[in-house]
Each structure stands twice: as C-alpha cells, then as structure tokens.
C-alpha cells in the first residue's frame, strides 16, 4: 500500500536561509505522527510544501502516492491542512465559510450534513451564523480545523493547532482528533507541547535546522533517555554522612531528600537501597522518574546545536 | 477492456469534471458575494459618481461642444462615462479581492484547494466583469432618464463592455498579485489607470487634441475600448471598430497570458 506521505530529498532555501536541508520521511496510512522541532526548524515549511503553499527547490513529495506538483489536484483532495497562522475571511459567517470551502473541493449540497456535523463536534453550532470577525481566537482556531476537514481528507495535517488555546478546548480538540484517527485518518501534528505529542503520537520525527535528527516510535525515542533514571529517596532523619559508594551517583540533596542519577547498566536501585540500609538509614519514601519526551527532545536538539 | 470498466471510467471522468466545475463555480460565487454584500459601495456608488459627471459636464459643455455631427454632447458623453465606470470597477474588483485576501492571509483557503490557476483566473475575472457590466448598465439606465441615446448595435456595445472589463480585470489580477500594500494598488490606479482613461477620449473626441496627443492616443488601448464602444451607440467612431476590436482582443490575450503565468508560478502567493 502506498504511504500517506512520502518525502524524498527535499531542499528549500529562502534567500540565505536553508529552511530544509535534505529531508526524507515516510508516514504510513493511519499513523498518528508527530513532527517536532524548535522554532524555525522548518516544520511549517515542510507542511507548506506538502500543501502546495511553498515550492521546493529539489526533491519529491507525494500524498497517497500523488505528487504534490504533478498530480496536485488529487494530492490536495487527499489533504486537509490546518495552518499555523490564525487566518480567516471577515466577510462571511462560520457556516458560509465552511460551505464555500466544501464547494472549492467540488462538493455541493451532499456535504451540508457533514458541515453541520463538524460544527457540532467542534462546538461551533451556536456560532454557525456568526461572522468570523467577531469570534474569539479559540473559536477561529476551531473554524480552521473544521475548514480543513470539509472534504473528509484521508490525511490531516495540523500545524500547532493548540497554540494559544485554553485547556478545555485543547482537550476537546484532542478528543476530536483522536476520533478522526480512530476513523482511519492519518494525522500529522506539530506542537511545542511535548506532553501532548507524548500522549498522542505513535511515531515522532524531530526536525532541527532543516534536518531530521531523530525519527522513531515514541517508545523508541523515550528509550533513548532510558539508560538514565532519577531515584528520589526521602529519609526519616536528616543524613549526616552519605556512604562513600553513593557519592558519585548523588545529583543533589535537600534536607531529607536525596536525588540519585542512575545508569541502567552500571547502577541498580537495589544497590543504592542496600547501601543506605547498611549505613543505618531508614527510608520513608522513594520514587523513580523516567525521562519524558521533553528531556529527550532537549538533549537531542542541544546536541545538534553543539555539533 | 470490459464495457463495464469503460463505463466506470467515463463515469469517473464525468465526476471529476463535475468537481472541477463546481469548485470554479463556488469561487465565482464567493467573488460575487464579496461585492454583492456591499452593493452600496460597489454598484450604487459608482453609478452615482457617473451621474454627477454627466450632470455637471453635460450641463456646462452641452451648448459649446459638438463632437459628432448631430449628436448632442451629453449623449456623446454617456458611453464614455459608462466605459470609465466599467473599467475602474472591473479593475477595483479583482485587484482588491486579491490584495485583501493576500494581506489577511485567507488566500490560503483557495490555494489549498484543487483549483487550477486557470480556474482562479477565470473566477476572479468573470466576477470583475460582472461587476463592471452591472455598473455599466446601471449608468446606462440612469442616463437614459435624462438623455435619449441611440443604439446602433447592441452586440457591439455588449462585446466591448465585456472584453474591456476583462482587460481591466486581468490588469487587476496582475496588480493585486504584485502589490504588497493597498498604497501600491492606489498608485497603480492613480498613475496608470486614471491617466490612460482620461487620455482615451472619455470626454472628447481625440480629433480635438493637438497633433502629439492625437498620435499618442493611438498607443493607448483604452482609447480603442471607448471608441469601439461608442461606435455601438452612434455608428460613428474615430477609428474603424474592427481595428478597435482587434486591439482590445490582443490586449486581453497578452494580459490573460501574463496573469496565468504569474498565477501558475505562484508569484507572491506561494513562497
Ligand atoms: N516565506 C518565507 N520567507 C522567508 N523565510 C522563511 C519563509 N518561511 C520560513 N522562512 C524561514 O525558514 C525557516 C524555517 O521556518 P518554519 O516556519 O518552517 O519553522 P517552524 O519549524 O515552523 O517554526 P515554528 O515552530 O516557529 O513555527 C526559518 O528560518 C524562517 O525564518
Ligand atoms: Mg511553524
């Protein structure tokens, strides 16, 4: 089966800025894919090339096997884009905008029901006849999402859909997007909220300075930080001296709290606890912390900057 | 190949063509709504302006000027005023639609769709032509109340009306793509469209001009639009109406080609 998105050797310059420097990427059908990276990494540029809003200097990009330049009609029909910028047409109401958008894709009355359904699902129903100009930012964002979906595209790309969106709407949006994913849509998402990507995406690419520096399943990516973990121990009494064997592992101590940084291969939790018990320390509480996506992300992008 | 497969393929092709037609029709509809919703500014105001010109110039010059034998000056003036309003409004429509959606960023909603550059061009131009023609007919209707006007050939009138607005609509597409700010568009209007319109014989026959300006007028495509248009009413003109038709058509072809090429390249709209 052809991939949902195929990206091959894509380069793009804006004057002196090399926005994309040889990007290769395949996104399978039905995937929930995260495209992460710091500001200016090239995420939106890549999405714009996919959408036909930007032209590539070299390389090839296809959606469901349709080249975005040669077969642009089929490619765009297969694609729903939620742009990063909060753009809107101040001339029209929510319902008008959605019906017009469906019309551009060649859909007529038969899509009216779906448009109403979309407004319902996104909490826009009572704003259906309101002019876009008068809507709050969050409401405008919902309209953008609805607009991207009027033609039921199999591949949905959301460029920071939760930027500047309150907690409730964010959760509502995620429920909705999870539903789309459950219905078989391929989802591509960019976000700066890494916990969001961690909870939603199955596979993640990290883009930095126009190149993909990591491409892995979420588990695989998290595992990169797994050779380390933090162990926090609360003792009953303040400690006057630490067993010398534990000195190199200690990250910091504050009163009764000791935080150790453990390496998977060389150190074990049991070893630390035994050493503490042998020193006559009574342990009140302990917990471990695994690195999250944010730690891995920061480490990877920092490494890239040093390189 | 089986008959069934063939029929299916034909059906699929018909469906694709249906999509394309509907996509185009939707964009056209949107462009019509864009000016239709503010008809007071886009249709009524220009008709009123033309009427003011007619009353003032007609009144002042009626007794002094006779351009064509047997044609009252006020009657002579009406086609010129109609054409002037048509040209300005056709230009204003396509250019302001494009620059507004560029500046507000909502042009992306159209750029993300399967619409081709030819479909974009036709929708923008057709909407502008319809506005131009509507304004032209409005001026005509109102003017008839004040001055009787002959109609030599309605086909000629309609032909020049449509083709000339298409020329200005295309120019509007080009200007709308090129301009980054409203000022630049206003500059285009004030330094190109207005002078060319005024120097084209809206208010006079070019034969009343000094030799240099008479010669210069022959390089002004707007002159042919107005002259051919006027022929449609009076059956009299400064140059052969077929020549005028040829010049207007050639101008349209050049500007349409340029617009299409700019749209195809995504000039200033696809980065
Ligand atoms: N239209 C443009 N003209 C000039 N430079 C551009 C243009 N679009 C993007 N760039 C540059 O290309 C680089 C990549 O930008 P891009 O918007 O793709 O980053 P991003 O990863 O989406 O960042 P963010 O997280 O801030 O949205 C940046 O250096 C940006 O300044
Ligand atoms: Mg971006």
What do these coordinates show?
The complex is a heterodimer of chains A (307) and B (271). Chain A is α/β, with parallel strands linked by helices and 307 residues long. In chain A, a hairpin with a 2-residue loop joins β9 (203-208) and β10. Chain A has ten helices and 14 strands. Chain B is elongated, with a radius of gyration of 21 Å. Chain B is mainly α. In chain B, α1 (3-36) crosses α5 (117-146), α6 (154-178) runs antiparallel to α9 (221-234) and α9 crosses α10. Chain B has ten helices and no strands. The complex binds adenosine-5'-triphosphate and magnesium ion. The site of adenosine-5'-triphosphate has 12 residues of chain A, from β2 and α1.
From the 3D structure, determine the CATH topology of the largest domain in chain A.
Rossmann fold
CATH superfamily of the largest domain in chain A: P-loop containing nucleotide triphosphate hydrolases
Strand content of chain A: 25-35%
| Assembly of the depicted chains | heterodimer
CATH architecture group name of the largest domain in chain A: 3-Layer(aba) Sandwich
SSE sequence of chain B, one letter per element:
HHHHHHHHHH
Ligands (ions, cofactors included): adenosine-5'-triphosphate, magnesium ion
Shape of chain B: elongated
Output mean pLDDT of chain A.
89
Question: What structural category characterises the helix and strand content of chain A?
Answer: alpha/beta
Q: N-to-C SSE series of chain A?
A: EEEHEEHEHHHEHEHEEHEEEHEH
Overall structural domain count of chain B: 1
Number of strands of chain A: 14
Radius of gyration of chain B: 21 Å
Low-confidence stretches of chain B: none
Low-confidence stretches of chain A: none
Q: Give the end-to-end Cα distance of chain A, rounded to a whole number of Å.
A: 38 Å
Helix content of chain A: 25-40%
Biggest chain-to-chain interface with counts: A-B, 32 and 30 residues
Level of helix content of chain B? over 70%
Structural class of chain B: mainly alpha
